[in-house]
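User: Can you help me understand a structure? I only have the sequence.
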Amino acid sequence: GGRVSGFLSYTLSRSERNDAGTWRLFDYDQTHILTVASSVQLGRGWAIGGTFRLVTGNPETPVVGGVYDGDVDAYRPLYGAINSARSSAFHRLDLRVDKQFELLGHRAAAYLDLQNAYNHANREGTEYSFDYTERADVPGLPLIPSLGVKGEL
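Assistant: Let's start by predicting it. Here is the structure, written out as C-alpha cells:
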C-alpha cells in the first residue's frame, strides 16, 4: 500500500512424469520462477511500474540427427532421450506508465505499456535444416509498445 507497492515471488518446483517405470521431466517443468513487481504513485494521477520475470527454460527432446526416408523422399528427425535437454532461461522486463483522470464524471486512464522493454530475444523454439544437420533458434516477441485508454462507469 501507500505510494510504493510491489512484491517479490520465487517458486521452486519440479514436475516429473513416470513412463512405464522410468521417471523423466514433464514437458512444462519450470524449476525456478522469479517475479519482481513494483509500482510508484507519483501524484496528480500519474503512476509508473514494472515487472521482471526470470524462468527456467522448458525441457525439450533434442534432435540428434536425421535419416533419409526414401518412401516419402524426405529426412526424418532422430530424437535423443525424452526431455533430456532444456531451453535457455526466459527473462523479460515489462514497464508501464499511466495517468488517471476524470472524464464526464467517470474515472478514466491512459497508459503506455512496454512489454519486453529491453528487447531480449527469448528462445521460443528451434527450426532445423531439411536434413537436420543445422539448427537455429526461433526468437519470441520483440519489444511491444501498447498505448491505450480505459474507462469505468
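Now, to help you interpret it: The mean pLDDT is 95. The chain is about 0% helix and 65% strand. Let me know which part you'd like to focus on.
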